[in-house]
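Contributing new records

If you add data, match the layout below exactly. Sequence lines come first and carry their own label; structure lines follow with theirs. Keep one chain per record. Anything else will be rejected by the validation script.
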Amino acid sequence: MNSYDWRADYGNSSDDVRHRFVGHYVWQLPFFGHASNAFVRGAAGGWALNGIVDYSDGQSGKCDHCTDRANTGQTSQRPDLVGKIDASRCGKVLIGCVSANAFALPVQYTYGNAGRNLFYAPGLINFATSLRRRSACTSGWRSCSGWMPTIR
């Protein structure tokens, strides 16, 4: 970062996520909860489907090089932007999704002209679902047992 040119550091925050939705749900399954047979009601009733849904856009990404080209003692500096950044082919990971040909090392003793956080990483869609059974104990306490797969 060029500490003499603050305008060159203007850009999106590293923690910038434009759109995010997080929701949860609990669905008490209505099956067998009111069965006339006590064994069926006790064995198959009291189940609930629970889950969390997380959807978010990707965070902004940056490109730095770890050499001190400006001779200032800072090891993380920005390169020169010499081509177009195309992050449209990014998959689930950022490795190799932005072409290195869009960047070049700046001339010795100068700062690079690339801005801050020039592209956005891929987003995240995550579902966590569980199937739980509630059972009452004789002392009045409730206990839960269930199965919880995570789908990513």
